[in-house]
Amino acid sequence: MSLSPHTRHRWPEALAIAAAIWLCTAFAHAETFAVIVNKNNPSNHLSASTIASMYRGETLHWQGGDRIKLVNREISAETRQTFYFHVLNAKPDQVFYRQGTPIPVQSVIERSDDAVVRFVGSIEGAIGYVSLSRLKQIDEGLVKVVLTIEKP
Amino acid sequence: MLTLLLRNSLSHKLMALFFAVFFISVSGLTFFAYTSSRDSMLQEFKIRGRTLAKAIASEARTYYQEQDIEGLTSLLQSLGEGEDVVAILAYQSSKTTWIEFSGIELTVDDLGFPDIGDVWQRDVALQKGHKVSEFGSAVVDSSSQTRKGSLVAASPAGWVRVFLDRRALQQRLNALIFKTLLISALITLVGGVVFIMLLKRSLRVITPLIEATKKVAQGNLHQTVPLLSRDELGELARCFNSMTEQLLTTTVSKNYVDNIIRSMIDTLIVFNPDCTIRSVNYSALNLLGYEERELVGQPAAIVFPPNECPLDGSKNLGIFAHGTIDQIATTYRAKDGRNIPMLFSAAVMKNEDGTIQGIACVAKDITELKRAEEAIQGANQKLKILDQLRSQFFADISHELRTPLTVIRGEAEVTLRGKDKSLDEYKTALGRIVTLSNQLNKLVSDLLFLARSEANALEIGNQPTPLFDILQEVHREAQVLAMRHGAVADLAAPTEPLVVEGDPYRLQQLFMTLIDNAVNYSNQGGTVAIRVSKSDNDVAVIIADDGQGIPPEDLPHVFERFYRVKRRHKPALHSGSGLGLPIAKWIAEAHGGTISIASVLDKGTTVTVQLPLSSAERPSNHFSPDEQELQR
User: What ipTM does this complex have?
Assistant: First the structure.
């Protein structure tokens, strides 16, 4: 169960998406996005690899022992594409499995940056990612940024 | 190919049968096991889905009441940990999506509330191609549930949808199929191997049985097969052994018959109904000089001279109608063209249904028989001639004995009749009577001599005898005899003693007989010449006359007893007894010599007597005759 057969059959689509990403990186102006956690989360800074291990299902708990609640954007979202590409080094529809098991790593799907911020702000163990510019517009002090990633 | 294989081998047939039955039963069992396993797996899958949805719904009640997103998220996170749980959706009472918790991509269409009751389950294909089973359950407030009795329908606080991946189920089913098929194949294989081993074990008596049966069919009855089992096949092998044993004692094997045919002295040729040669025995090949392959398959005419084949002719009239030919004389034609007289018998061999199987011809070479027959006939002919000669002789001898007796009696009667006669007349008559008596005496002596010689009662002296003296004595008497016939006897001999070992009286008798003959057969004024020539070891006495000779047809027979050459000119009275020459021959041979005769008609006869010289008279081997002369 390494790679879902559905993704395997969608090579052309994946290629198209890859081409879109390339186009975006080529033409869109540079955008920075932020990885955010609840303001009560004791962690102030997380490295990219730590975050990647969470999303890959390798790390399940925060240091305090709470379960990490992953928040993702839907697969078609540009933010998710960027995040998967730069942090997880994977395609946005990649399904990860908990280490050593066939149990897929599941996440709460929010369909806008606002919803992500709202969800992370209301749930302590949550972690998500949003566009930094949008975060600044709607910041209510409920979340804190643990990592910012410059999109080249 | 397969059908050929199946048709030719019992074990293959049984194997095919076994595999068919075994395969069908294993397949049936496999199918049964698979379907029941699949059904139970599906059942379990559905129960799990429903239970999960219900559990989430009942656990989520308080979170719904308190609108606790964190709690609900934790709940979904903990309960949704299953390998086939791909997404859990929580809806609020307004039927809008509250929490989307998933590991796969859901579109907005998938998120829409289906609104098909409080509890549901269905199989759906999601927009992005995932095949899932969906289990839904309403989250019902317990307080409203307790009030259910009073209120008709309390609207639920929300709904929970659980998506279970059917792909995992499918994979498990596939694994199940694979495992059952594998086990079935393994069972079939192991069962087949065991079955084949058992089958081979029980059928191994068949191969030697087939071999042995083939050999029996070829005529070799000394066959036994090993008894390997106690089942029906073992019984068959036992019966086979007892059958060959019985056959050996009750019938003759082909080998036995072949040996008989091979050792037959007579020729045996078996023909097919179309008169071609089927088989030939050794005697026939030997007699005719053919190789077996040269004859088999050839038409019958090859062994018979042209147009003499006794099997030819209309098939309805010939041997085929009659059935046998019994002992006819016919002829075989050998390879080198010789015709061999044969005593020939033939018999038609018929099957039980009367069809002709072939013709067996036995023939015997009667060449020797024919030759012996001819020899016997020849001997018989000779005996007849001899018998004739003997009766002729007896007639002659009686005649010759009677003639002088008649003359003597006549002479005496004539002399005694009438008046007295002068003394001279009596003297003459008595003289003639004496002559005739002498003649009779001689004849009787000859007969006596022969009778004695035949009885081996004659004794021949064995003393050194000077031949020259005998010849001179003989010559003297010959001159007297010759003078009476108006002929001359002439002796020409070396003045040597010429000593031979023998009996002087018999030798004189020998030469006198020959000279008497010569004088008798010589003409008036003829000459009887006596010549003597000496060589190293023997002496030859040649007595030649220039008389009438002997006809060539009589010449070979003159030494036979009682054989008399028919005289042309002289009356029978003066002919000899027919005993002189046989006596002469007997004497010559008794002395170790030979006698031979040569004659030309009207020119004369020459008789040569060859006698061995006495060993004292012979020259020594170490000296030449010249040296011998000097020594003397």
Answer: 0.73
